[in-house]
Amino acid sequence: MQRGQIQDAIAALTQLHPADRADAFSDLDDQHQAAILPRLGISDTADLLEELEDEDAIVAARTMPTERLADVLDEMEPDEAADILGDLSPERAARTLAEMEDAEEVIPLLGHPDETAGGLMTTSYIALRRHTTAAQAIDFLRQVQADEETPYYLYVVDRNRKLLGVVGMRELVVAPPYTAAEDIIDRDVLYVTTGTDQEEVARLMARYNLSALPVVDEDGVMHGVITHDDVIDVIEEETTEDVFHLGGIEAGPLSEKPYWARRIPEIVRSRFFWLLGLFVAETLTGTVLRHFSRELEAVVSLAYFIPLIIGTGGNAGSQTVTSVIRALALDEVRRSDLLRILVREVYTSLLLGVLLGGVAFVRVELWGIGTPMALTVGLTIVTVVLWANVVGSLVPIIADAAGIDPTVMSAPLIATLVDATGLLIYLTVAAIVLREI
Fold first, then answer.
1. Are 86 and 110 in contact (CB under 8 A)?
2. Do 273 and 409 share a structural domain?
3. Which residues have a Cβ under 8 Å from the Cβ of 377 and sit 6 or more positions away?
4. Distance between CA 120 and CA 109 in Å, rounded?
5. What's the CA gap between 359 and 8, in Å, rounded?
6. Do residues 201 and 194 make contact, with C-beta atoms less than 8 angstroms apart?
7. Do residues 162 and 221 make contact, with C-beta atoms less than 8 angstroms apart?
8. Domain containing 191 — which CATH number?
9. Within 10 Å of residue 253's Cβ, how many Cβ atoms?
10. What is the pTM of this model?
11. DSSP string covering 95-155
12. pLDDT-derived band of residue 64, with 50, 70 and 90 as boundaries?
């Protein structure tokens, strides 16, 4: 491209796998992208848009003339085409749909929110009637266009397209030629409705090792299929969002961009309000220190162990909140398990606290500061670890019950809350122990 050899660049680009082609295209600057895109064939452009990140695909689509965009979307899978149309302006989307030949496959998908099963599904699937024979089904499969999505399963529907069951490819091939579809279907078919959240879809497909999942409406009428590649995208998206939350960073459009594509002002905006909230919460630590200033002045050695106390409490809380959030995400625990989780974490934290407290006691004794101080630190470690585990186990469950994403109750937030309360516990224990002794 730098030497102006555009056709050679296009030839090199189109020889790549579509996924690698999208990466290479994204690495080009805007000027080079604008030079290549109009010269790509319709099919190559469709493959490129399907593999690009959502934001990049939309930018590319907006630069195309309406007629060309319509041809490209006709070549794409209906669900991918619907995603692009949904992000265009209503006027541009309407003009493009009017130019498309296969608009009827895309229009039903536009009414569903992106993060639901209806927004993920494709209308490109194979359905059989109940009286279709195995031989007829195989003949039909031979006529299916090569660019159709792989028919992992064939779905059997009645005359009203109500889902009756599913036939696997193996069952179809080994069945006698004149066997009716209704005689070899699996009627215990797993499905979701159009409004099912995408996280639930991903969980079901991962749990039951499904390559595709049918989508029906409330009456059981089949509307589409979700394939494994769509679910992989969902898992990546949801995991990225959770990782950002766990790191105390605002998730959103920024989380969908590669690292080098994120502009510094966007990064600052995504991190500032989280840091500000944590900063304000951390000022509670200063309040506690002011309240116990006399004790700190009287026993200067108390200050030596403040980092140890708040660090141990924060780390313990972070471990617990991470474990509980993961268990919630995998549906290993539910809100109704709150009491069981609490009891389990109390036992765990007591064991951890006693072990760590014993180590802390010995360490302080070795410093020669005195047994009262060692006892204060040891008891505080036990109490702080217990408190941190209780907070770390309860807060995600309560957040989930309140309809808040549990990952918002991230490790930095829990650590910050435990810092202030852990310091309060430490200085209260010190006031009691040192006064008594």
1. yes
2. yes
3. 305, 308, 309, 357, 360, 361, 364
4. 9
5. 68
6. no
7. yes
8. 3.10.580.10
9. 11
10. 0.61
11. HHHHH-SSHHHHGGGTTS-TTBHHHH-BS---EEETT-BHHHHHHHHHHS-TTSPP-SEEE
12. very high
**3-state secondary structure string across 3-58:** CCCHHHHHHHHHCCCHHHHHHHHHHCCHHHHHHHHHHCCHHHHHHHHHHCCHHHHH
DSSP 203-265: HHHHHTT-SEEEEE-TT-BEEEEEEHHHHHHHHHHHHHHHHHHHTT---SGGGGS-GGGS-HH
In the chain, how many domains are there?
3
Q: Is the dihedral of CA 427, 433, 435, 437 positive or negative?
A: negative
Between CA 187 and CA 164 the distance in angstroms is 6
Among the candidates 111, 145, 175, a domain finishes at 111
What is the number of residues in the chain?
437
pLDDT digits (tens, 9 = 90+) for 316-347: 888 888 888 888 877 788 888 889 989 998 99
Intra-chain end-to-end CA distance of the chain, in Å: 80
14 is written with which tokens?
């189109």
Q: Does residue 71 sit within a domain?
A: yes
> Which residues lie below 8 Å from residue 112, measured CB to CB, with a gap of 6+?
118, 119, 121, 194, 195
The DSSP secondary-structure symbol of 179 reads: -
Sheet with 212-216: strands ordered across: 192-193, 212-216, 222-227
Give the percent of the chain with pLDDT over 70.
83
Q: How far apart are CA 421 and CA 288, in angstroms?
A: 9
Both 305 and 378 in one domain: the answer is yes
Per the structure, the complete domain to which residue 388 belongs is given by 254-436
In a domain, 241, yes or no: no
Band of pLDDT at residue 147, cut at 50, 70 and 90: very low
